[in-house]
Design brief:
Strand order of the largest sheet: 1-10-9-8-7
Largest sheet: 5 strands, antiparallel
Number of strands: 31
Number of helices: 2
Radius of gyration: 20 Å
Number of domains: 1
Strand content: 35-45%
CATH architecture: 7 Propeller
């Protein structure tokens, strides 16, 4: 209960601050999607003028690495790209919005989720802004996910939106439940609950972590996720599936679901979760007044109490998203920028 209260405090703090084409020329779903996007009004931006001397020095919530090896960061100062030498603020000429989420889709295009300004689509040349006017459920976008069919999902304040390249299908949180909306309804203000994380597991089911209940969606019905005592898992900020098919998430502790049993491996919750190439689990967590960066040893995860290493305990201001780069280094977003961990030391790129 203590950790749940602390994670709720973190949310309150953030809320206050944020407030296959063939040779005969057939068109595939992916190419049709790109064509639909390109047919809309676009925003042109001169990226070459956006080079900066350092990384963002404000909140960095999400970090990814693209197929070319560039590191991308969603921050309150914009979307930054790092090519190994220089940092580029990719959205400085497009929007002054605070960004919270980002995704590179299977076609190499990028999606940027903002707080209050909707979603920006970037094809490497131009931007396109999607908002509630286009059918997006809410303009506050906290998470983005691409499913196996190539649809793009947006976790927003009040629910989620699924984009198939032509239109949005929305799903709204109604108190303790979540349902598909067929009326075309959109939400213009902040809602009590929002979707923080989404994944599609190996069986095709979707898991959605929210600031309220956690839901599992089979394509027809949303079911509230509960433990063996019937208690709903609440305030889940991240969900991931490991290489064995186990589902990991954190509410008032760190949980693993193996398809039949929920196991609580730690009393420490998780704002972000990552499985690295060696099978270790990394988490960012709030413990007391400290923001901890933890690594659970992969070889001990079958134990009731796995071996855990506190990589950093309070030295860095508020940990958020985690990335394992191609070279094995671990990148982590914080309340004051981005850090790279090489296994021994942290490098602060804001300096």
């Amino acid at each position: 209960m203590k950790n749940y209260f602390l994670q709720t405090q973190v949310f309150a703090f953030l809320t206050i601050l944020i407030i296959a084409t063939s040779c005969n020329g057939q068109i595939t779903k992916e190419s049709a999607k790109e064509k639909a996007i390109e047919s809309k009004d676009t925003i042109k931006s001169e990226i070459k003028d956006s080079i900066t001397s350092h990384a963002p020095n404000a909140i960095v919530r999400t970090i990814i690495q693209d197929r070319k090896g560039n590191i991308w960061m969603a921050s309150w100062q914009g979307i930054f790209r790092y090519d190994g030498k220089s940092f580029f603020n990719m959205t400085s000429g497009v929007s002054s919005a605070r960004f919270f989420s980002l995704l590179e889709d299977r076609n190499g295009n990028f999606w940027f989720g903002s707080i209050g300004s909707g979603v920006y689509y970037y094809d490497g040349y131009n931007f396109r802004n999607f908002t509630t006017k286009d059918g997006l459920l809410n303009n506050e976008v906290g998470s983005i996910y691409e499913d196996k069919a190539g649809n793009i999902w947006f976790g927003v304040s009040g629910g989620a939106s699924r984009y198939d390249g032509k239109s949005f299908q929305n799903y709204i949180i109604n108190g303790e439940s979540m349902n598909e909306d067929k009326t075309g309804k959109t939400l213009s203000d902040r809602q009590p609950y929002g979707v923080n994380a989404m994944i599609e597991d190996k069986t095709g089911k979707f898991w959605l972590g929210t600031t309220g209940n956690t839901f599992v969606y089979d394509g027809k019905t949303f079911t509230t996720l509960t433990n063996k005592d019937g208690k709903a898992f609440k305030n889940v900020w991240d969900i991931t599936e490991d290489r064995k098919g186990n589902i990991w998430f954190g509410d008032d502790g760190l949980w693993r679901y193996d398809g039949s049993t929920f196991t609580k491996l730690s009393e420490k919750g998780a704002l972000s979760i990552l499985e690295d190439k060696k099978g270790n689990i990394w988490t960012t967590s709030v413990v007391g007044r400290n923001c901890e960066f933890l690594r659970y040893d992969g070889k001990s995860l079958s134990n009731q109490k796995p071996t855990v290493t506190i990589v950093s305990d309070g030295e860095i201001n508020a940990f958020f998203g985690i990335l394992e780069a191609f070279d094995g280094s671990i990148w982590v977003g914080s309340g004051s920028g981005v850090y790279r961990y090489d296994g021994k030391t942290f490098t602060n790129y804001t300096e």
